[in-house]
Amino acid sequence: MQLFVNDLTVMDFSYLCPRRGMVGESWIVDVILDGNLNDESMIQDFGKVKKNLKKLIDEYVDHKLLVPLDYTGSTVTHRSQDEQVEVRFESDDNKIIQLFCPAEAYAFVYAAEVTMASVGNYLREVIATHLPDNVANIDLKLRPEQILTPFYHYTHGLKKHDGNCQRIAHGHRSKIGIIIDGQDCLESQQYWAQRWQDIYIISTEDLIEYSQLQASGTVENPDEYYCCAYESSQGYFELVIPRSACEVIETDSTVECLAQYVYNEQKKRSGNSSLQVMAYEGVGKGAIVGD
Ligand SMILES: Nc1nc2c(c(=O)[nH]1)N=C([C@H](O)[C@H](O)COP(=O)(O)OP(=O)(O)OP(=O)(O)O)CN2
């Protein structure tokens, strides 16, 4: 017999891709449990399924950077004196992404690429060891939100957040609504989807000099990279990333600030028309700025 729970949770995370670099993602999780009935005549109480599985998914994937360990361009170095881990990633176009962060900021996937299948396998293996005896198997279906309008993928870190959003490389796949004079403006939505296709959003106050980096790795042309870092409650986070993959903004990158940023920039494009911006952060939530 099988038990299913659709829309169990949304995983918001980022991953390293040989072709796209750092990609922010939001995947919805559906699960199916295979098993026999327990003393309560249930495979497992829905309350427990939802609570336990969400906790494991949060612990192993949500708000982390997923690194494909079997990709030849991935190098991972664990610093012995503390929990800091250095990740160096060389993409197909020979650009480097380098991080130096607490171990809990990453998930290491034994695959050449991070895909729904490889992440599903990774999670299945983790969760399998936590299932009750009457449950023989679990199947996880990961899927993106069905979006019929333009969207972008962004990665960021919120150093002031006291939860896992402080991690410097977690992200989202997000719709963007631009309403001009009361009408959805497809051209403007496409413009933002293109501009922020696979973007890393940096706050100016997090920028540091190349010479200040604590990671041991180097890059050949430092002028082509942004370096950013901060200390927050989970520890020290540092990132080196190609400038071509970044947008630098003056504020934090909460979705409220991003909506305001898009509004201000869009105003320059759309002039005196009335404007409303609906910026999403992943699935089903976001901020609205308008006049
Ligand atoms: N008002 C705001 N609150 C939060 C913001 C924000 O921009 N404005 N941002 C974050 C984080 O960036 C985070 O990535 C949001 O992810 P979310 O999945 O909503 O966070 P949780 O894991 O706490 O929620 P779950 O439903 O448990 O996945 C946080 N807050």
UniProtKB/TrEMBL annotation:
Natural source organism: Salinimonas marina
Matching Pfam families: PTPS
Domain of life: Bacteria
Enzyme Commission number(s) of this protein: 4.1.2.50
GO MF terms held by the record: 6-carboxytetrahydropterin synthase activity
Recorded metabolic or biological pathway in which this protein acts: Purine metabolism; 7-cyano-7-deazaguanine biosynthesis
Endpoints of the signal sequence: none
Listed name of the protein: 6-carboxy-5,6,7,8-tetrahydropterin synthase
